[in-house]
Amino acid sequence: MHDLAARLRRLPPSCGPVRLIGVDGHAGSGKSTFAGRLARALDDAPVLHLDDIASHDEPFDWTGRLLAQVIEPFGRGANARYAPYDWHGRRFGAPRALPPAPVVLVEGVGAGRRALRPHLARLLWLELSPEEAWTRGRLRDGEEQRDFWDGWVRAEREHFAVDPSRPFADLLVRQFGEGYEVLEGPAGTVGPDQSLTQGDGPSAMC
Fold this sequence. Notes:
By secondary structure, this protein is an alpha/beta fold. The protein contains five helices and eleven strands; from the N terminus they run αβαβαββββββααβββ.
């Protein structure tokens, strides 16, 4: 993980002074866990969870809100300010500041969408099939969230059908035990080290 963090630090800024790193993948694929580990390797880099930007009424129609509250301020070198959504209370909360740190991770389904890609220094995709990811997510959230997941799966399918992220990923991330394997993505923009294994413990290879 530290090798990957070092590579990301060396990238040129992509959004004002910020190296904005997108972490995308299907719901339930492990994006939040991976982003948290990567953030720690980046000296506790800020992580923006797109669950805080989306809402029940707008699970994917949040581009304007993200651009206005986060991308545009970062482009000026200013603090972003966004109102995180409360999924239980079904309302947006008090504004929260997000500083323009050297590296900021944007994690969530749709982090690699068309409107956001020009502002990203790198796009990472968690490589897990939608069926496996959604099964993991349903098991995690339990029977009480069944109706939500039924609606979410439909919305996610529709989103990726018109605005896919994976074909534009710079790196693909696969989890193996306690570690991760990082491979060159379809975008093919990484260097000659096409296969790189990252992990917090011993290397994990498939």
